[in-house]
Design a protein that fits this description.
alpha+beta; Chemotaxis protein chec; eight-stranded antiparallel beta sheet
Length: 205
């Protein structure tokens, strides 16, 4: 039984969750810079604890077509993590990585899809690595699964899976910038309630 109530989380606990989001996003930016061997700037991430039903509005609405990369988490922390971005941002991310401009209709080539999946894997891995290092907790991640669909459809997967144990997710909105390409990405971390306990306890809360 979890000791945490996400509806009554105190300010100190939320500040810790925000800091985890900030550090994870910063680590992901560093990984992206290393991957392209160039400088990538990052705006200050926006961190929020939202109900599942509020998540689609964060990414442009339930019918907005997005790219979602889903990873399931096991080990000392169980749950899911998703990296999500809209079509324009996905095209910009491809441009940053391979210098090819994917079009804004979501019709990516096989090479562009492979690049998107790989960069999503690396960015998500960097985020999880920073979380593991910060908390000294072992986190095992699955092979990433990528989908291009309406936001409502993609977000229904974690909502159905974890809606029975909680109805909130930690969402970190991050903006990466390189030259004239801006990428708005969203990390959505959905640990089980017991995993929130493990994370906060590891940090002395």
């Amino acid at each position: 039984m979890s000791n945490i109530n996400l509806d009554q989380i105190d300010s100190m606990q939320f500040d810790v969750l925000k800091e985890i989001g900030n550090i994870g996003a910063g680590n992901a930016t560093t990984a992206l810079s290393t991957m392209i061997n160039g400088k990538v700037d990052m705006a200050v991430p926006k961190v929020a604890l939202l109900e599942f039903k509020e998540l689609p509005d964060m990414v442009g609405g339930a019918e907005n077509i997005v790219v979602g990369i889903l990873i399931t988490l096991e080990g000392e922390i169980n749950g899911m993590m998703m990296f999500m971005l809209d079509q324009v941002s996905a095209s910009h991310l491809v441009k940053i990585l391979i210098g090819n401009m994917g079009n804004d209709t979501g019709e990516f080539s096989e090479m562009e899809l492979s690049a998107l999946k790989e960069i999503g894997n690396i960015i998500s891995g960097a985020y999880l690595s920073s979380l593991s290092t910060l908390t000294n907790i072992r986190i095992d991640a699955s092979i990433p699964y990528m989908s291009i669909d309406m936001a409502g459809a993609i977000l229904s997967v974690p909502a159905i899976e974890f809606g029975k144990v909680g109805d909130k997710a930690l969402i970190i909105e991050t903006e990466f910038c390189k030259d004239d390409s801006n990428v708005n990405g969203y990390f959505i971390l959905i640990p089980s309630l017991e995993s929130y306990d493990v994370i906060l306890s590891s940090l002395g809360l």
